[in-house]
Write a structure and sequence with these properties.
The structure is a homodimer of 318-residue chains. Chain A is α/β, with parallel strands linked by helices and 318 residues long. A 6-stranded mixed beta sheet of chain A has the order 1-2-10-7-8-9, sandwiched between helices. A 4-stranded parallel beta sheet of chain A has the order 5-4-3-6, with helices on both faces. The radius of gyration of chain A is 18 Å and the shape is globular. In chain A, 46% of the residues lie in helices and 15% in strands. Chain A folds into 2 domains: 214 residues, Rossmann fold; 91 residues, Rossmann fold (3-Layer(aba) Sandwich), CATH 3.40.50.1100. In chain A, α3 packs across α8. Chains A and B meet through α12 and α15 of A and α12 and α15 of B.
């Protein structure tokens, strides 16, 4: 059964007290470069610094009280871990987060800062899942998947809903795609709140599972994984892929060089802090001039959680 | 004769078509750290990336047509150079900019990008002034000083005017001080538009001429110059100092370590790009808890033009 318009509207009302309505920014210099009117939905200014709080918060707030009392759990090295930790604190329950032992210190500290209990594991999928299962068995905590969960997809959909309500008559909306939670939610909100608008996605060449899955019609692995867009390494799930397959017109891939150029542009011209995954759609728009020129494009800037010490290396190498 | 309220109001109307009304942002994490309510006036989002366009634009727009036709000139390695270059392009005249030969490439390119004619000189004050005088003699261009000019001070005053109109009942406003153009303009706008509000300033320890001048009652040199806040190296002028001496309650100095800590906070928590000079007032507020706790404080974030490759070095050293 498909997520309904009413479910997205209810999710939005539910999470509103806990999230920011993030601003939509424009930049005349970048518009000139793109030959288009770009409207940036700035989820880097969101609570926890990324859109992930929308899905996490919606999932937690829909749990029954007795279930919630056991706590919530997930495995993540990134923004979803912070989202679950933050959501647990907001609702007065406990968060159990499984993180790979090589997680960046800044992300570990952020999760700790929200009061979550961290369990470190070997940095592979099997170890993550084993550690998580052990926690769920022991505590009865509710597992909230980073993207392959309808409560999460419905929450992420509220981001495009806000954008479409603030900026009418967009010709297209473009979002990044990793596991597809944000992209599938975006596609549903466009379908319900601005049906004439076309949905696109941007994906790193070094994690190109989604573009491949769109071609074959089933969930595929990426040919290889090697990109600085560390928020987009995961592959689509059985709840996100069908929505994306049906409602997304095209997925464009971009190289790390193109991601770095877009990153630099956003820092230097828009003066905002974003993470590499976040500028993948902008890089795709700049690269595919023929598709986007002359149009009104909504771009989801997904987050701003970045290890700033890496910027210099990227910019100097480029 | 003192700059009047009407002059500031007229300057604001005059420059409005050419500038952004920049947003005022807040950050709950930083508020918690400061124990105060901080309202950040974000001139890093201003045209050319800094407040300087306000003064530059006001100076250019008040020139008579025949004078304007000869062009405008200044010496600057920083944001004022961009302001004059941008203002010249907006008014269809020519900009002559004297820049020290060691100016960062990114700043030279920005000035070139606005179509200005650049003359390089040895990196010292004498060489700058000689090169500028030669240009003025040859072309009849109007020299617009970066700060010691009433047209410039009046333009910079419009920044605090916007802040005070948007956020009423501020207990204090704090701005950075270099040559004093922004600070003297801020003091005048507070005097006219929010007379109960107290004006403070932040200054780097490594360019502490203003705090010394406030003590002695006359314009002093800094004991030494050594700070990453490269926009605040200049000393007060005979037009800015009297206003500051009369209307600014206190100037607080901060170390480069404190500047870097504040810089990191703004990047990581507010997710915006600012330059080191810009966070000196925030560093001063965090350092002087007894003065600011429990109050509503307006903070002028002056600009966001920064060589991003330097961030890593600062953050890793701290």
């Amino acid at each position: 059964m498909r997520i309904s318009k009413a479910q997205i509207e209810q999710a939005h009302e539910r999470i509103k007290p806990f999230i920011h309505q993030t601003p939509v920014l424009t930049c005349s210099t970048i518009n000139k470069m793109a030959g288009a009117s770009l409207f940036f939905k700035c989820e880097n200014f969101q609570k926890i610094g990324a859109f992930k709080i929308r899905g996490g918060m919606n999932a937690v707030l829909t749990l029954p009280q007795d279930k919630l009392a056991n706590g919530i759990a997930t495995h993540s090295s990134g923004n979803h871990a912070q989202a679950i930790a933050f959501a647990a604190r907001q609702t007065g329950t406990k968060a159990y987060i499984v993180m790979p032992s090589n997680s960046p210190r800044v992300k570990v500290n952020a999760v700790k800062g929200y009061g979550a209990e961290i369990t470190f594991c070997e940095p592979n999928q099997q170890a993550r899942e084993t550690a998580l299962q052990e926690i769920v068995d022991r505590t009865g905590a509710e597992f909230i998947h980073p993207y392959n969960d309808e409560r999460v997809i419905t929450g992420q959909a509220t981001c495009a809903k806000e954008l479409l309500e603030e900026i009418p008559k967009l010709d297209a909306v473009i979002a990044p795609v990793g596991g597809g939670g944000l992209l599938s939610g975006t596609a549903l909100s466009v379908l319900y709140f601005s049906p004439g608008t076309v949905v696109y996605a941007g994906e790193p060449e070094g994690a190109a599972d989604a573009v491949r899955s769109m071609k074959s019609g089933k969930i595929e692995d990426a040919p290889y994984i090697n990109t600085i867009a560390d928020g987009l390494l995961t592959k689509l799930g059985d709840k996100t892929f069908p929505i994306i397959y049906e409602h997304v017109k095209e997925i464009f891939t971009v190289t790390d060089e193109e991601i770095i150029a877009a990153l630099r542009l956003v820092y230097e011209r828009m003066k905002i802090v974003v993470e590499p995954s976040c500028v993948v759609p902008l890089a795709a728009v700049l690269k595919n001039n023929k598709v986007f020129a002359g149009k009104r494009i909504g771009i989801i800037l997904s987050g701003g959680n970045i290890d700033l010490s890496k910027l210099a290396g990227w910019f100097n190498a480029a």
